[in-house]
Amino acid sequence: MVRAIWLWPALAAIVLLALLAARSGTGPDLSAHLAHGSLSDIGLYQAIARMVGSGADYYATAVTLQRDNGFPLQPFVTVRLPTLAWITGAIGEGPALALAVALVLANAAIWFAALPFARPAERVCLVALVILASLMTPRAVYLHEWWAGQLLTGALGLFLRRQAGAALALAVAALFVRELSALFLLTLLPFLLRREQRTHLRAALLALAVFGIALLAHHAAVTALVLPGDPVSPGWLDLRGPAGPSADLQTMVLFGLVPEPWASLLVFAPLLGWCHVAARRSALPLFWFAGFLGVLAVLARADNAFWVRMILPAYMAGLALVPRALAGLPYPAISRRTAPGGGPAGSPAGGG
Length: 352
Fold this sequence. Notes:
The protein is mainly alpha-helical.
């Protein structure tokens, strides 16, 4: 059993986050990110993929549909990278859904063996939480954050299994689906350096450099089609505080059905499980999840609720380790009071 004194401050911080979120939050808002014009976010990506699958140019299609439906076109990152639209457009929705199911099952297998110290019951819970937190409507195959989150979940599990090369491959794949995955790679770099995995470190740096070039090409392709009067994003500095990530997580994992402050406590509780993993295996999950939740608290708007899927389903799997973490808290020792003669209090002084 790991007894780390710093788990007490971690528990106190998690409870404080939950109370702040419950006090200042208004609960999850399902309508905030559902519609722009006549299309929802997912509806837009679905329409783009289908037109690309019929032979249309990605950039011309994406820019036109976003303009016609009131989606922002400036800055250029408001137009998603073309990777997912190319793939789903080429193979169709049915095969894409089958591929998504296969990825969820692969992640379940990865996480069943990701933590060598986990007990059998904990392994089963880890797998169940990975699967449950993956659930979305079938149209989620068009959602960039869903795929990036699944790929990063696999990458994190493989890294914990000491398979850094395979983990890096999945993280790079996620990078070309959703550029927010760069935050995971940047978090990974110091851990590769600490393990002295110089080959993997160089590969990660090369991947970031190649991605930088691809992003410049994406910028050029979008800006060539954007007109001066096209919609501009309102910016990303919403400063929602703990209530922001709490509401986003509740929306995506249906904890919004639970009353406050218990809902916020449930969505922040996995951090305690990841604190335990940091003491036993690696701090990478804790740094990645806590860092991204910080990004959601500071930058994301209410209509950026899908961003939280970047850390799902792996983040919620931390719930499986919360009982172990609570059991590992260092509690004060309670000694039995003894009588002057050496026997326990209440017994004859000489022991009879």
